[in-house]
Sequence to fold (222 residues):
Amino acid sequence: MRALIVEDEERLAHNIGRMLEEHTSFAVDIATDGEAGLYMALGNPYDLIILDLMLPHLSGLALLEKLRAAGKATPVLVLTARDTTEDIIRGLDLGCDDYLTKPFEMAELCARAKALVRRAYNRPDPVLKVGDVEINTAVRTVTYRGKTERLPAMEYRLLEYLAMRAGEVVSKTDIIEHLYDFNSDRFSNVVEVYVSSLRRRFGAQTIQTLRGQGYILTGGRT
Ligand code: CA
Fold:
């Protein structure tokens, strides 16, 4: 999963980013003004946008309006100052999916972020069951044939993303775009490395490769 934070208070933006990276499976990009935020939001397949409303160059509401007008359905979580019911209503009317008023608890932001993404992928149950593999997205553990464990971060990110899209063939480009932020090294062969480790853990049949198309998570059952 990959999130874009559009927030001009840089310290807050980085705190949110760090919390998401530590407590969820999001890769995180940050934009510190509305124009940069819109440009990044239109050009990348984000799973979530966390959007401050008071932004330089382009307001959060204007960004949201342009994003929806461009046909982008990315879930948007609005951050707003206290006592601005009007902004909240306008935000909801313009197509935001959820909001938090500042100051907010980081734990609540992380929980809402995860819930929005589950909803977007049509996965109301936080436990994703695919074949013999069960992924608990709330606590980020994986249970395989009765044994529960915590995976290295990138292996977990890959498994969770494939599980969100279970039953679909997921291309390597999609995987790279949803697992890595702009600052990470995106050597495409690392995807194969993580796929191999997941197969070693959960059996060779867990993830099938469709040549030239991508990967499909079967959880060992076809
Ligand atoms: Ca602001």
Observations:
- The pocket of calcium ion is lined by residues 8-9, 52, 54-55 (CB under 6 Å).
- The mean pLDDT is 94.
